[in-house]
Specification:
The chain is about 30% helix and about 25% strand. The chain is α+β, with helices and mostly antiparallel strands. The strands form 4 sheets. Strands 13, 14, 15, 16, 17, 19, 20, 21, 22, 24, 25 and 26 form a 12-stranded mixed β-sheet that branches. Strands 1-2-4-3-5-6-9-10-11-12 form a 10-stranded mixed β-sheet, sandwiched between helices. The chain has a two-stranded antiparallel sheet with strand order 7-8.
Length: about 550
């Protein structure tokens, strides 16, 4: 089965339309930069990049190399090496999920080299000019990382002070896994990463079909192993779930947290609030389980978007933090993040950058908003500070509404970064196809920081059921921005019998302006996820007196 021909889920419009996971990446700039590093001709790059090339060529030798990987696979790579005679810190940079490969890191690797490191960047197996097949951070990829480090040590004269791994996206997961298994690794930078791949693919038992389809499409020119193709096809088709979860377990940094903790490996994370490939909670799962030095920066946008400007050398707080992190943990230089705390969150939209010493300190206090029955003349329920019980609200399945995660994977997040978040016309949501609950206007600005929790009693009319909870910020005209969301699937529902569930929505850092309302929308379809509902079925939400349905928000 060819990756490019993988089926979209159930024939729906697929939000994973862009083939590149890096739509804003200036590949032409990277090409000019690498050409200048090789030739010394600095006419092509911009003046500042040209200065960096000139300085680097005076200090280090840049060369294209073939790195010996697992099973004899040759991995396309590049080496920035200082003259022999001094033991130096090392950085290995496995590539993202793209045919561009190690070229993505060309500018930043040069900047690290100017700071005194020897650097090896390489293209992950199966991508670009690297041999082998894509195994999605499998054992071969972990072995590749260790062999790459060994190769860099050899090229550095057999000596080094400390070694770190840095990766974006695919390379970030590989970096964490190598660090867990290779005792020579002293620090990690993991940007736009994953922590639990099974949770990323099956959030609340709901297949994340748009993300898997997007990964499939972005690898159309790569050489995916037969097993990788089977796993991706199984996720899209909704089969062999236990086999896929076993496969994902082996490829999840969370599986090896004890190994990371046994050596107190320092890990620097960077993630986007509205990440549509690897949702934020599964990365926080690893972050919160780590007991060594750690830091996470959370930003507006989507996968790899917040750090892309820095990738090509523009000022960027994520890459600046990565430089400080590795300078501290590999070279012993002071790092301000030691005093600023573990968490740095840029609140949506264009909000302040808030720092906290820990994730718990960053998170707001739980504030319950109880769901009530439909209010007369509106058809919408309310979100109030007092329990409302004895009511029910029913909506049908089978029809999507304007309440969706995003228009497109990654690209909607790029627009968010530019200050143009998607607007949702909440008045166009057919209340026959969704349950809607609305709060009163906020008297002042209300900041949510942390993971909202929805406790809900529902009754399904069919043995399989899916709904998606969307939390919106709504102005007085009915236009909304999405705050967060979460899917939920019950594949073995008891027809006609109430069931109660706790659902963690994805982590958020969001300030609701004064006078706006919170709106909770439950509908049964979203193009980002699989749909287990049967045609013509219904979902009924209720609120028992002894366990009222409630949305708990982390309010600062």
């Amino acid at each position: 089965m060819n990756a490019a021909n993988a089926p979209s889920d159930e024939g729906r419009e697929n939000p994973a339309q862009p083939v590149s996971l890096y739509p804003e990446l200036d590949e032409a700039l990277l090409t000019r930069f690498v050409d200048a590093l090789e030739s010394g001709d600095t006419i092509g790059p911009a003046p500042l990049r040209a200065e960096e090339v000139t300085a680097a060529r005076r200090l280090v030798r840049f060369s294209r190399v073939t790195v010996p990987g697992a099973g004899g696979a040759g991995l396309d790579g590049a080496l920035w090496k200082h003259p022999p005679g001094e033991s130096r810190p090392l950085i290995v940079m496995p590539s993202p999920w793209t045919d561009v490969g190690w070229w993505v890191y060309a500018v930043q690797a040069t900047l690290f080299a100017l700071e005194g490191y020897n650097i090896l960047a390489y293209t992950a197996r199966g991508f670009g000019r690297s041999e082998g097949e894509v195994e999605v951070a499998g054992p071969e990829d972990v072995s590749d990382g260790s062999l790459a480090l060994g190769y860099l040590i050899e090229q550095s004269g057999g000596t080094f002070t400390k070694a770190g791994f840095l990766g974006d996206s695919y390379g970030s997961g590989i970096s964490q896994l190598v660090a867990a298994h290779d005792e020579r690794v002293s620090a990690v930078v993991a940007m736009s990463t994953w922590g639990d791949l099974g949770e990323a693919f099956y959030e609340n038992s709901t297949r994340h079909t748009a993300a898997v389809q997007g990964l499939f499409d972005a690898a159309k020119n790569a050489r995916l192993s037969e097993r990788t193709q089977e796993i991706f096809a199984d996720v899209l088709a909704g089969r062999n779930v236990s086999k896929t979860l076993e496969w994902a377990h082996e490829r999840s940094p969370y599986t090896y947290v004890d190994l990371l903790n046994s050596r107190a490996i320092p890990v620097y994370f960077a993630h986007a609030w509205h990440e549509t490939l690897f949702p934020t909670n599964q990365t926080l799962k690893v972050f919160n389980a780590l007991t060594g030095p750690k830091h996470i920066t959370l930003s507006i946008g989507d996968h790899s978007g917040p750090e892309t400007a820095g990738t090509i050398g523009l000022p960027n707080r994520i890459w600046e933090g990565a430089h400080r992190w590795l300078a501290h943990h590999l070279k012993g230089e002071p790092d301000a993040s030691d005093t600023e705390g573990q968490v740095s969150g840029h609140l949506m939209w264009k909000g302040p950058l808030d720092d906290a010493e820990t994730w718990d300190a960053f998170t707001g206090r739980p504030e319950p908003l109880y769901l009530t029955g439909a209010v007369q003349d509106t058809g919408d329920g309310a979100l109030t500070d007092k329990p409302g019980t004895g009511w029910s609200l029913t909506f049908r399945t089978g029809t999507d509404t304007p309440a969706i995660v995003a228009d497109k994977i990654i690209q909607t997040g790029v627009e968010e970064m530019k200050g143009r978040p998607k607007e949702y016309p909440t008045g166009d949501i057919d209340r026959a196809d969704a349950g809607v609950w609305v709060s009163t206007p906020t008297p002042g600005a209300a900041t949510l920081r942390g993971i909202p929790r929805l406790r809900l009693t529902y009754t399904a009319s069919s043995p399989q059921m899916t709904f998606v909870a969307h939390l919106f910020d709504v102005d007085d005209t009915g236009k909304a921005h999405i705050i967060t969301h979460a899917p939920f699937t019950d594949a073995d529902a008891a027809i006609g019998r109430p069931a109660t569930v706790d659902i963690l929505l994805q982590a958020t850092g969001y300030t609701v302006p004064a006078g706006h309302r919170l709106m909770l929308v439950l509908d049964a379809r979203d193009p980002f996820y699989s749909d287990a509902n049967k045609l013509g079925a219904t979902i009924t939400v209720s609120s028992p007196a002894d366990d009222p349905s409630c949305l708990e928000i982390p309010l600062v």
